[in-house]
Amino acid sequence: MSTPMVRAEGVRKHFGKLEVLKGIDLTVERGQVCCLLGPSGSGKSTFLRCINHLEKVDGGRLAVDGQLVGYRQQGDKLHELREREVAERRRDIGMVFQRFNLFPHMTAVENVMEAPVKVGSVSKSDAREQAQDLLARVGLGDRAHHYPAQLSGGQQQRVAIARALAMRPKLMLFDEPTSALDPELVGDVLDVMRQLAADGMTMVVVTHEIGFAREVGDTAVFMDEGVVVEAGDPRRVLVDPEQERTRAFLSKVL
Ligand code: ADP
Ligand code: MG
C-alpha cells in the first residue's frame, strides 16, 4: 500500500475547555472519496481545518501525503513549520466552503487565475488559459467574464471549485458545499464533484447529501461529539448502520 493521502491517529483539538475532537482516527487513501457526516457541532469543520493547517492539532498525529501537518521532519527531529512553509503545503490542498467566498470585484476567470498568478507558478496568459479550461470543466465555459453577483449560487460554487483546482491540488476538501444552495442548484454542483471523483481526485467531503455519499463515497465516516462513531463502506454505514447514533442521525436527514 502507498502512503495514504490523509492519516489521522488519535487527533485531538480543544478550544479552551471545549474538547471538539476527542481522538479522531481516519485514513483516506489516494484517489478515494471520504464523506464525513454528523450533526452540527460534532467537529467536522474543525477536522477539515486541521487537515488544511487552519487549526493546530493539540494531540495525536495528523499526516497529509505522509507529512505531519504543521511540522517538518529532519532526521528524527520535528521542527514547527514556518509561515512560508505552511503556505507551500497548503497549495497542495484545495478547499471549498459552504459560502463561495469569491472575490466580488473579479470575473469568474479572474477568480480562478488569481492564485496561480499570485504565487507566480505560471505566466498570466497560461493561467488565463488554464482557468478557461477549468471553467469549461465545471460547465461554465460561457460564464468566464461574469462577476459573482451575475451568477447563481450553484454557478458561484462551481467557480469556487474551479478556483480550488487551479493550484492543481492533490487533495480537495469540501465543507458542506451545497448546504447554502437552493435545492434546484444542488445537482449541478454534485455532478461536478462526482466527475472530479471519477477523474481520480482524493476528496474529503463534509455533506448531508446521503445519496451522494452512498454513490460517490469510498468511505463514510459518521462523527458525533468529537468522535468517529462508525466508519466504513457507505453502502453499509448509510444503509444499515450498526450504531444507534448513526441510525438516529440518518432518520433525521433522510
Ligand atoms: P461541525 O462542522 O461538525 O458543525 P465544528 O467543527 O464547526 O462542527 O464545531 C465543533 C464545536 O467547536 C462547536 O461546538 C463549535 O462551536 C466549536 N468551535 C469551532 N470553532 C471554534 C473556535 N474557533 N473557537 C471556539 N469554539 C469553536
Ligand atoms: Mg461545519
Automatic annotation (TrEMBL):
It comes from the Bacteria. GO terms for molecular function: ATP binding. Keywords: Amino-acid transport, ATP-binding, Cell membrane, Membrane, Nucleotide-binding, Transport. SMART domains: AAA (SM00382). Residues 6-250 form the ABC transporter domain. CDD domains: ABC_HisP_GlnQ. Pfam families: ABC_tran (PF00005). Gene3D superfamilies: P-loop containing nucleotide triphosphate hydrolases. It is found in: Cell membrane. It is a peripheral membrane protein. Belongs to the ABC transporter superfamily. This is Amino acid ABC transporter ATP-binding protein.
